[in-house]
């Protein structure tokens, strides 16, 4: 795989709907305002790396505020870039992309709100080495097979937030993490707890039959058939980073 430079008009999505919509001036303006405000806040924080979220879908019925994570970092020119995983719409495949903040927030948002958590300085330094290093390292834990509700402790599929947290584990603990299973073992050891999303059987069945990027067969049967879907969410990642002391409390920005 090669690290791709994504444009706003590419057919990739994560944390948002895959419906094709014509961009309008209002959405463009709001997206750019959010990007500018986020950049200003990140600059003021003094951070070089942050775990950045957007609200691309309405997940309130699941008790979730944000939908999609990326790893933001300041490059050599002083601009912020976001590395994140995007699903090719209509398929069960995903790739890793690098975007500017403007592109990141011009993506059919449900709510014009961003949030970020700044990791501890030592962890920022390790993440920055990974982000500025060879692309092969950054892509090391990427699993192209994608399910939006992939099991947090499985390796058959991988959704966008799962790639972020597993890559975070590899960056901050490089000597012991050489694959997804090791990354997940480290996350469990460090106390990460995924969100448990309750889905009815009809929702599960309908999602599997009508969407290529939704699969439940990686979840343990005893959990799947009791409608307990354990998956990696933005909210659970922010809660863990704060609880563990690995990052500062999340900062939320609204328009």
How does this model look, in words?
This protein is of the alpha+beta class. The protein has nine helices and ten strands. The chain has helices spanning 25-45, 101-105, 121-131, 135-138, 160-172, 180-189, 201-210, 221-224, 234-244, and strands at residues 4-5, 12-13, 49-55, 68-74, 80-88, 94-100, 111-117, 195-198, 228-231, 251-254. The strands form two sheets. Strands 1, 2, 3, 4, 5, 6, 7 and 10 form an eight-stranded mixed beta sheet that branches. The chain has a two-stranded antiparallel ribbon with strand order 8-9. β4 (68-74) and β5 form a beta hairpin. α5 (160-172) packs across α6. The longest helix has 21 residues, at 25-45. The chain is globular and about 45 Å long.
Spell out the blueprint of helices and strands.
Elements: E1 4-5, E2 12-13, H1 25-45, E3 49-55, E4 68-74, E5 80-88, E6 94-100, H2 101-105, E7 111-117, H3 121-131, H4 135-138, H5 160-172, H6 180-189, E8 195-198, H7 201-210, H8 221-224, E9 228-231, H9 234-244, E10 251-254
Parallel strand pairs: 1-6
Antiparallel strand pairs: 2-5, 3-4, 3-7, 4-5, 5-6, 7-10, 8-9
Helix pairs in contact: 5-6
Concise description?
This protein has 255 residues and is an alpha+beta fold.
Kindly state the mean pLDDT as a whole number? Answer: 87
Name the beta content range: 15-25%
Specify the structural class: alpha+beta
Helix content: 25-40%
Per DSSP E runs of 2 or more residues, the count of β-strands stands at 10
Order of helices and strands: EEHEEEEHEHHHHEHHEHE
Radius of gyration: 17 Å
Based on CA inertia axes, which overall geometry fits?
A: globular
């Amino acid at each position: 795989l090669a690290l791709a430079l994504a444009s706003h008009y590419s057919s990739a999505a994560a944390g948002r709907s895959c419906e094709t919509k014509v961009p309008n001036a209002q959405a463009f303006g709001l997206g750019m305002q959010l990007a500018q405000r986020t950049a200003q806040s990140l600059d003021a924080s003094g951070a070089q790396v942050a775990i950045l979220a957007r609200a691309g879908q309405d997940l309130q019925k699941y008790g979730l505020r944000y939908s999609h994570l990326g790893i933001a970092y300041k490059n050599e020119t002083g601009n912020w870039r976001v590395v994140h995983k995007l699903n090719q719409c209509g398929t069960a495949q995903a790739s890793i992309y690098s975007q500017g903040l403007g592109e990141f927030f011009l993506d059919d948002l449900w709510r014009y709100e961003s949030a970020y958590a700044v990791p501890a300085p030592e962890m920022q330094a390790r993440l920055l080495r990974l982000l500025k290093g060879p692309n092969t390292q950054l892509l090391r834990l990427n699993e192209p097979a994608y399910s939006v509700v992939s099991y947090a402790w499985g390796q058959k599929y991988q959704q966008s937030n799962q790639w972020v947290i597993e890559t975070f584990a590899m960056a901050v603990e490089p000597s012991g993490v050489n694959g997804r299973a090791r990354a997940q073992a480290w996350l469990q050891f460090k106390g990460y707890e995924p969100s448990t999303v309750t889905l009815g059987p009809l929702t599960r069945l309908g999602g599997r039959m009508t969407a290529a990027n939704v699969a439940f067969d990686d979840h343990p049967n005893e959990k799947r058939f009791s409608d307990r879907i354990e998956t990696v969410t933005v909210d659970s990642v922010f809660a863990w980073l704060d609880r563990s002391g690995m990052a500062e409390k999340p900062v939320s920005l609204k328009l």
